[in-house]
Amino acid sequence: MELTAQQRDVRAKQAANAPKHPTAWIIAVSCLILIGGTLFLYSRVSWQQALLYVLGAFGGFVLYQAHFGFTSAWRKFILYRQGEGIRAQMIMMAVASALFLPLLVKGSVLGHPVSGYVFGVGVSVIVGAFLFGIGMQLGDGCASGTLYHIGGGDANGIVTLIGFIAGSVIATAHFDVWAKMPQLEPFSFIGEFGALGGFLLQLVLLAAVYYVVTVAEKRRYGQLVATSLENRHGWKAIYKGPWSLLVGALLLAATNALVLMISGKPWGITSAFALWGAKFVQLFGVDPTAWAYWQDEAKRQALANPLYYDTTTVMDISLMVGALLAAALAGRYTKPIQWKRPTRMTIGALIGGLMMGYGARLAFGCNIGAYFGGIASFSAHGWAWFVFAFLGSLIGVKLRPYCAYKN
Questions:
Q1: How far apart are CA 344 and CA 399, in angstroms?
Q2: Which helix H or strand E contains 113, and what residues bound it?
Q3: Helix count (H) and strand count (E) of the chain?
Q4: pLDDT, average across residues 319-326
Q5: Is the predicted pLDDT of residue 380 greater than 90, yes or no?
Q6: CA 360, CA 143: separation in Å to the nearest integer?
Q7: pLDDT for the residue 9
Q8: Going by fewer Cβ within 10 Å, which terminus of the chain is more open, N or C?
Q9: Which among 284, 277, 285, 275 has a CA at the least distance from the CA of 306?
Q10: Half-sphere exposure of 10 (CA within 13 A, CB side)
Q11: Per its UniProt record, what Pfam families does this chain match (predicted)?
């Protein structure tokens, strides 16, 4: 039916008064921050720091476009026995291990030493990973998940991050108590069994997890169930997404290997939260250098330096910006951000963040530093982290409905 002139005028006024969603502006600002930040770090710190900034942004872009979640993947398996996410994680670990192996064996690259994350397994790792597992379900995201959710416009992630930082500071205040708890000596597969033996053992463990998850899913459904989002954009999915979990796994493995090459250590997330929190409490006259955690010379130096000298900080910030860019390109910001959340969800996110921040300091890292980086470094503590964080997630998933999540 043809519209009258009056109806057309009304429609035009409604269109003119409709809220504008600044997608183009978000894309432009994201690119400006990334380019400006890269140039700033290149001129003020080093080309390595600038390149790590770019890699952090790339990691955030990949995490968002592939919807590569550690928390959601575990939850889907716990509740529904859908294991595609966990299988993707095992593939990511296998590829990262293959890329890490020659670098770790050689011990140096680009003129600087290279070493993985290899720590002892003890009470602190067990308790820390367990707390982290509960917290990641209550906070609705792990460490990397929290950051890319913020970039993707999830207001709940901001609350989780606040709790994350607070929990990290609390843990550093009495880090010495946990450091004195019983623990085994650091155990490296390639250190104990050689490069070939350690790599084969790694592949066997990864294959075992892959097999168990696959069998459990087939028993439930009779076949494997695809849970990745369907590509609706054709070739434009390169920048609009969504990407498959397999593509995400491969790109994240390559990203971590490049981080190892450039920085001399694997990708990490949560040490920056402790640093941010320590600098914040300094504003109120608190001296964190008196705490055991900050007795290490490198950590003291990080506390004294501007934040842009800290590699983890630089990569965390660019991760959020990379996710912001990905979300804008994917059309996320054509809809307004939902700032209003149920009170129970806000409280749950804050508690979850506190538990993750505290647990990450005890367990030498998070899902990226301890789980991804630890396993890729052939460290037994990475596998211990996986086991106890998963056990914690079993409890966290049960608690989610009390925080107004719909699982």
A1: 11
A2: strand 112-113
A3: 18, 2
A4: 96
A5: yes
A6: 9
A7: 53
A8: N
A9: 275
A10: 5
A11: Sulf_transp
Q: Which of 120, 113, 101 is nearest to 364 (CA)?
A: 120
Q: Under a CB-based contact definition with an 8 Å cutoff, are residues 355 and 134 in contact?
A: yes
239 contact partners, CB below 8 Å, separation of at least 6:
329
β-sheet bridge partners, residue 109: 112
Compute the mean pLDDT over every residue in the chain, rounded to the nearest whole number. 91
Give the length of the chain: 407
Distance CA 245, CA 68 (A): 6
Amino acid at residue number 228? S
- The three-class DSSP label of residue 21 is coil
The whole-number pLDDT of residue 323 equals 95
Quick one: tokens of 127?
Answer: 């308790």
- Structure tokens, 163: 């709790």
Give the up-direction half-sphere exposure of residue 74: CA atoms within 13 A in the CB hemisphere. 24
C-alpha triplet 193, 196, 200: angle, nearest 5°: 85
Q: Which amino acid is at 305?
A: N
φ, ψ at 127 (rounded to 5°) = -65, -45
